[in-house]
Amino acid sequence: MSSYRVAQVGAAGAPFEITERTTRRPGPHEVRIAVDACGICHSDAMFVNGALPDVQFPLVTGHEIAGRVAETGDGTGGHWQVGDRVAVGWFGGSCHHCAACRQGDFVVCEELKVPGWSYDGGFGAEVIAPADALARIPTGLSAAEAAPMACAGVTTYNGLRRSPARPGDLVAVLGLGGLGHLGVRFAAAMGFETVAIARGADKAELAEELGAHHYIDSTAGTPVAEALRSLGGARVVLATAANSAAISATVDGLAHRGELVVIGADAEPLTITPAQLLMPGLVVRGHPSGTARDVEDTMAFSVLQGIRPMVETMPLEQANEAYGKMLAGTARFRMVLAHTEAGRAG
Fold first, then answer.
1. Contacts for 299 with CB less than 8 Å, ≥ 6 apart
2. What is the 3-class SS of the chain, one letter each residue?
3. pTM of the entire structure?
4. For the purposes of burial, counting CB atoms within 10 Å of the CB of 253, is it exposed (0-12), middle (13-18) or buried (19 or more)?
5. In 10 A of CB 134, how many CB atoms?
6. Which residue positions in the chain have pLDDT lower than 50?
7. Gap between the Cα atoms of 178 and 236, Å rounded
8. How far is Cα 137 from Cα 37, in angstroms, rounded to an integer?
9. Are 195 and 216 in contact (CB under 8 A)?
10. Please, are residues 32 and 127 in contact by the beta-carbon 8 Å criterion?
């Protein structure tokens, strides 16, 4: 029996430890993936800390997976072949029978499968995933570049393209981290007049490099909403920062019929009153990632526009250090665990 290495968490809040798992064959409608890279998302902390229901320990987290099909199970219909380059993100498969799935809205499936929650994630050299979770990686993206596109990329890209903003509209991106730096790049490439909002004057140069037309320093003294109104008001604010206070502070900067798209997860409540929403007809919407097809669209658009995530790679053995950098906010801008052939063979 062959084996492969994983970085697992033995109990809630425990550090990662390197251990081995026995390779198993994929079941019907599943594929086994040889993982080349896996991004580290802030949402991984919810799994590691046991903050979500039914999280099982020992845990192998990771839902920004890029690799190659190593083996196919029955019923994959010949669509996937050994060697195909694939990505798997937060959308790790759906049930196909709940009300949302029957309406074709698979990403809000009532029994959504998330890697690291429903089955072992990408902090290991192999993953067995449902075939409907697979997105084909296009030529032009490396594994380390493709992995973050399966969650951070698709969430920002989809959040913008499903918003009411149209080319030429003022669109603000709150936060310049793992999601935000991609959000700014996508917004600029989509033809929006792009505003980046972050903390500190030192981020202005980065915002310009990413393609932003304007930069708002949220610590400069002028309220963020006032700064947005001085630019004419935002048609859309894409809130990538996991900070409810910062998200709430943008609402009064929306133009009439504007939309706040929330993708940054924070346990604290938003402080928005009905009065703020009623008169200007504002919309507050949560946006949940995207399907495998959406991931493919994101990657195709990224190749077309020359957009790549800014990543820092580390080997699986340094999972604790890489995860720590993500938590501390010192990553520039997405930590990615890169796997080796040596980690797969036991």
1. 87, 135, 137, 138, 141, 146, 149, 153
2. CCEEEEEEECCCCCCEEEEEEECCCCCCCEEEEEEEEEECCCCHHHHHCCCCCCCCCCECCCCCEEEEEEEECCCCCCCCCCCCEEEECCCCCCCCCCHHHHCCCHHHCCCCCCECCCECCCCECEEEEEHHHCEECCCCCCHHHHHHHHHHHHHHHHHHHCCCCCCCCEEEEECCCCCHHHHHHHHHHCCCEEEEEECCHHHHHHHHHHCCCEEEECCCCCCHHHHHHHCCCEEEEEECCCCHHHHHCCHHHEEEEEEEEECCCCCCCCCCCHHHHHCCCCEEEECCCCCHHHHHHHHHHHHHHCCCCCEEEEEHHHHHHHHHHHHHCCCCCEEEEECCHHHCCC
3. 0.95
4. buried
5. 24
6. 342-346
7. 20
8. 13
9. yes
10. yes
| Assigned token pair, 125 | 């050299």
Bridge partner residues of 127 (DSSP):
33
HSE of 227 in the Cβ direction (CA atoms, 13 Å)?
Answer: 19
Q: What is the pLDDT of residues 78-136, one digit of tens each?
A: 899 999 999 999 999 999 999 999 999 999 999 999 999 999 999 999 999 999 999 99
Token pair in block for residue 115: 């890697």
Burial annotation 254-268 (CB, 10 A radius, 16+ → b, else e): bbeebbbbbbbeeee
Q: Please count the residues of the chain.
A: 346
- What are the tokens at 33? 């993936």
Q: By the 8 A CB rule, do 135 and 33 touch?
A: no
In sequence order, the β-bridge partners of residue 69 are 33
